[in-house]
Structures are given as C-alpha cells and as structure tokens.
TrEMBL record:
Pfam families registered for this protein in UniProt: TsaD (PF00814)
Gene from which the chain derives: tsaB
The protein's name: tRNA threonylcarbamoyladenosine biosynthesis protein TsaB
GO molecular function terms noted in the UniProt entry: transferase activity
Keywords, alphabetical: Transferase
Family: Belongs to the KAE1 / TsaD family. TsaB subfamily.
Organism (species): Legionella septentrionalis
Amino acid sequence: MNLLALDTSTETATVAVALGEQVFGKEQKALSQHAQLLLPMISTLLAEANLSFKQLDGIVFGRGPGSFTGLRIACSVAKALAYAHDLPVFPVSSLAAIAHKAFQQEKELPLNTQVLALLDARMQQVYYGYFSQEIKGEEGVAAAAQLPIFPDVPLLLAGVGWDNYIAELPSLIRARIVKQAVVFPSAQAMLNLVQSGSIKSVTAEEALPVYIRNQVTQGEPRG
C-alpha cells in the first residue's frame, strides 16, 4: 500500500510516506509550530517520493493520547486530506507507536519483556500503556505513583517526559524496569503497524482524536 502517515501528539512533528516497500520520513521538533509545519512537510515528502495524493491508498495519523492541540491538528489534517481525495483513515495510538519503535530499536531484551510506554499528561499525571511484542495492551491516564501494576514481567520503559516521573513510579514497577529509552511516537512506526494489518481503517467522518481524559490541561503535555 501507498500510505501517508503523520503525528503531532508530542513536540516532535513527524511525517512518513510508504511507497510499496520504500519509506520516506521527516521529523521536526517545534510544538508551537505544528500547524504551520505539517502541510509543507507533507508536500516536501510526497515530492521526494515522487508520489501524488491520487496514488495514495490511505492516510495514517496519530490519534493520541498526547498534546490536545497536537492531536486536533493531526486529526484535522488527516480528515481534510481523506475527504479531499476519498481515502480511508487509519487512526493509530501514539503509545502503541512508541512501543513498536522501542521494540525495534532495543535489542537483547529478557524473555517476555513488555514496553511500558509513558507520555507526560501534565497535572501530575502520565498517559501509560503496557504492550507485548504483538503491540497488544491497555492504555490509561493516572498519577505516576498510582500506575496500575499488572504484568509480572520485565519492563522496557519508553516514551518522552517519563524522566519527570520515574522516581514517583511504584517500587514494584521500578524494580521490573530492565531498560529505559527516550522514544517519541513516529509516523514510520505508525506505518509499520498499519502495514502489519493490526489497524482497522475508518472513514474521514469517523476519524477522531483520543484524549483518554476529557479534562483539558493547563498548558500542553511536555514531549
């Protein structure tokens, strides 16, 4: 499939294009400029791939959780492009993208290691997700000290902003962490998840951001 993927759930805007087995990607760290940067990044990348919107089979976007403003930007752009070019949309969890990328880049992990993906949710909370190698898991939001303790397995801690909260994690969780990695949710990881067949498509009308919690925070999530 020829796919365009985009994510602005953190301070890093990331765009990727899959042209068959070839992948082209761009990223830029500038949270306050996502709205201005995203469309030019997409245009540049499509030109590099020598690909037009007519040749695309779908639009992939990071549905969240993450920066509320960033999620709205990515979703709005994905919906607009899908409407304009009559394309299906593939919403991908930003936490699942972190987990997928973490498993790809961190090798020699103990047997049955799971990824604990974390993003700073502000208000002294984190967005969290526990993921197996198959990128199956559960997501939520909680104070770091009240994070659910459920997998009795080694943990690879991954994400952005977790360094602000690692000391507050329950001791049972900290004792299981075998490796730590700063990993942002990348558009390329989202492409990989869609290409694996694990993500169902929706119509442009059905595509929505997933905030996990409804309360708008004071300021934006870091990272």
